[in-house]
Specification:
The structure is a single chain. The protein has a six-stranded mixed beta sheet, covered by helices on one side. The chain is built from three helices and six strands. By secondary structure, the chain is an alpha/beta fold. Strand 5, helix 3 and strand 6 form a beta-alpha-beta unit.
Amino acid sequence: MRNFRKQATNQTPAIDFNYETHELRISGECWLEDAAKFWVPVLESLNNYLENAGKAKISVAVQLSFLNTGSFKAMVQLYRNLDEAVKKGTAVVFRWRYRKDDEMARGYGEDLAASVRSAALQITLEEEVS
């Protein structure tokens, strides 16, 4: 299985999913009109990976300073997919990173954590140290 990567643009975040090291990193901003066009391949890649992940320990690091509604919905779906994997025995560490002065980005992480009611997966909010 090949690693999944997308370069950041002025409207899309960078995606770096290394299947060998079990690390998914998402960073940047999401100003997309058609969020599905961007996020569907990301979610498909994650789902394909999770089918074979077994008991791997997955590290997810997200740092998004802006999310539009469609992209937030995609992040909720990504979170739900990872939550289901945790319920099946896969270990996942999910870190939501934000700059110290970026309350909006922190709020996105808090909203995401609150979006799944009976989540087995916990999001850790991490303030970047300057």
